[in-house]
């Protein structure tokens, strides 16, 4: 039997009683199953109507406000009714960060009513405004202590509140921990509201990574030895909830990936790689995986080698590492930095570096070095097929590699790990190398590398001799120029000396002719040896040692002391002679 104080303050109960009253005055029973907050909240309402003191907190004010609205406990049914009281308390809650976090967490229990009363949106707006404004603008107490004692000790205190700002400095991540207390739907709305207010994308990205690491344990896996200390340091602030199902983890990951800022470099590449690996393990949608691969491709020049070594997680594991994934990432990068006039003619390819400009050349070169280092790592995998290696190496344009030393090293590692390749495959494989772009150390190593085809070795020797001839021609030109300058500068002296000057000039010309004849003789010997080398491979050892001991050692020692015996150490490995 409903009592009078309750009926007098609730318009809904008063209406229901009037409709259910029997004409004979007998009692009636009302079943209220839809009261927001359930029995516990209705008990608070009952006590309020009977004048019993109740404790309204940030944890129950939302359900009380919704119940008051449902029961129509407004000012029409008594001054200072429950609607006005709870609304007044909500305004106080929405001026305090910790209370707002507690209040919004309870909104899910009464979601339809909280949404209709705009309690959720008001709370989201307040939280977003505080995040954007900074932690020092809300009245969060610094320490809990006796205000009267502090006031006596510190004259700067007024009514227990410090007039000076002595709060310790806090970074942009001060709100990450509290935001993790929200459900995914509320957190998503908070992030969108924060972005709408113009929050820095770096802070938004940091919060998203912090949030996903709370609910997807795969994000906390140690991916390399270099990250060991970093993972341990963050372990105290990161909770891996292993009770979450894989389906829920997949939903979390896909939602978070969709919220990541699009600005390049905002999200560290190591976390994008972790997201990608987690997406593969959890079998996320293809659009989610494509999104992550494109993000990595857009900042591939900022990636470290260890991050590219993604284990192969496919159903048919053929290779140790996921080479296909890395190939797609490289293609995304190339599509962004490749010149718009993507022609295949050699003349345009050689000038491509000038077309793309200096700003794009540096990232392209960095990626070329990264890919070559990656090729050297995956080349050790005996299951890596030759076409996959060739496709990955060919994905980088030729102009992106100032030198082909790193590519040559990767190819040498592959040949060593795959000794069963036939000569034709080796010859086609080595066409990836531009022998004209090998350094002196790499050329010396290649000339003594028995794993290379004879044709490649001949090309290396031929272009080394061209370089040698060009260098000598340059020296002769300088000598000739110096003689000409000396002759013109000492013109008066030559006239006075007469025959002595003519004799010196004649002697210089004779020396020049002798050096030219010597070079021509060496070139003739090279042609003969090349013809012999084409007939048999056995003559290679004699030929290479004769040429390099005679020419390369002579000029290498003059420039930084490089000789044939020590050049192999520059290639990060000794060849098998």
From TrEMBL:
In terms of superkingdom, the source organism counts as Eukaryota
Residues in NPH3 domain copies: 173-467
Q: Reply yes or no: does the keyword Magnesium apply.
A: no
Ligase keyword on record: no
Query: Where are the residues of the annotated region Disordered?
Result: 489-513
Q: Give the pathway listed in the UniProt entry for this protein.
A: Protein modification; protein ubiquitination
For this protein, the record's Gene3D superfamilies field holds: Potassium Channel Kv1.1, Chain A
Comp. bias regions, Low complexity: 489-510
Q: What PROSITE patterns does this protein map onto?
A: NPH3
Keyword annotations of the record: Ubl conjugation pathway
Family per record? Belongs to the NPH3 family.
Name by which UniProt lists this protein: NPH3 domain-containing protein
């Amino acid at each position: 039997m409903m009592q009078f104080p309750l009926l007098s303050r609730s318009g809904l109960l008063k209406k229901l009683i009037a409709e259910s009253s029997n004409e004979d005055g007998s009692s009636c029973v009302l079943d209220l199953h839809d009261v927001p907050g359930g029995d516990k909240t209705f008990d608070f309402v009952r006590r309020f109507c009977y004048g019993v003191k109740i404790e309204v907190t940030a944890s129950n004010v939302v359900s009380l406000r919704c119940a008051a609205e449902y029961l129509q406990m407004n000012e029409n049914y008594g001054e200072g009714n429950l609607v006005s009281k709870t609304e007044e308390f909500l305004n106080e809650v929405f001026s305090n960060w910790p209370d707002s976090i507690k209040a919004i967490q309870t909104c899910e229990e009464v979601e339809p009513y909280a949404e209709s009363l705009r309690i959720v949106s008001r709370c989201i707006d307040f939280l977003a405004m505080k995040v954007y404004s900074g932690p020092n603008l809300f009245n969060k107490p610094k320490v809990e202590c006796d205000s009267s004692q502090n006031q006596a000790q510190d004259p700067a205190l007024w009514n227990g509140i410090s007039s000076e700002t002595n709060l310790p400095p806090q970074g942009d991540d001060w709100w990450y921990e509290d935001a993790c207390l929200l459900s995914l739907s509320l957190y998503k709305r908070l992030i969108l509201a924060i972005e709408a207010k113009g929050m820095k994308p770096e802070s938004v990205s940091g919060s998203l990574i912090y949030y996903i690491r709370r609910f997807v344990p795969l994000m906390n896996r140690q991916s390399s030895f270099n990250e060991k200390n970093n993972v341990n340091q963050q372990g105290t602030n990161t909770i891996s909830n292993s009770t979450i199902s894989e389906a829920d983890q997949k939903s979390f990951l896909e939602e978070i990936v969709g919220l990541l800022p699009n600005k390049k470099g905002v999200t560290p590449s190591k976390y994008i790689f972790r997201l990608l690996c987690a997406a593969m393990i959890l079998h996320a949608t293809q659009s989610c995986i494509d999104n992550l691969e494109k993000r990595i491709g857009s900042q591939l020049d900022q990636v470290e080698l260890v991050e590219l070594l993604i284990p192969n997680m496919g159903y048919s594991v053929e290779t140790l590492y996921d080479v296909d994934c890395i190939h797609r990432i490289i293609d995304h990068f190339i599509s962004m930095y490749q010149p718009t006039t993507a022609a295949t003619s050699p003349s345009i390819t050689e000038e491509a570096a000038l077309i793309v400009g200096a700003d794009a050349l540096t990232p392209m070169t960095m990626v070329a070095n990264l890919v070559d280092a990656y090729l050297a790592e995956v080349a050790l995998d005996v299951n890596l097929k030759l076409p996959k290696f060739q496709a990955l190496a060919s994905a980088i344009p030729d102009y992106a590699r100032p030198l082909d030393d790193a590519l040559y090293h990767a190819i040498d590692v592959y040949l060593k790990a795959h000794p069963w390749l036939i000569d034709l495959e080796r010859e086609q494989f080595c066409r990836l190398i531009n022998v004209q772009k090998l350094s002196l150390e790499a050329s010396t190593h290649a000339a003594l590398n028995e794993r290379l085809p004879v044709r490649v070795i001949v090309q290396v020797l031929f272009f080394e001799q061209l370089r040698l001839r060009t260098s000598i021609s340059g020296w002769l030109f300088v000598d000739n120029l110096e003689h000409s300058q000396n002759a013109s500068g000492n013109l008066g002296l030559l006239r006075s000396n007469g025959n002595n000057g003519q004799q010196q000039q004649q002697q210089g010309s004779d020396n020049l002719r002798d050096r030219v004849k010597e070079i021509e003789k060496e070139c003739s010997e090279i042609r003969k040896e090349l013809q012999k080398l084409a007939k048999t491979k056995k003559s290679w050892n004699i030929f290479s040692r004769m040429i390099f001991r005679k020419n390369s050692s002579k000029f290498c020692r003059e420039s930084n002391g490089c000789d044939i015996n020590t050049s192999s150490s520059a290639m990060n490995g000794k060849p098998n002679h």
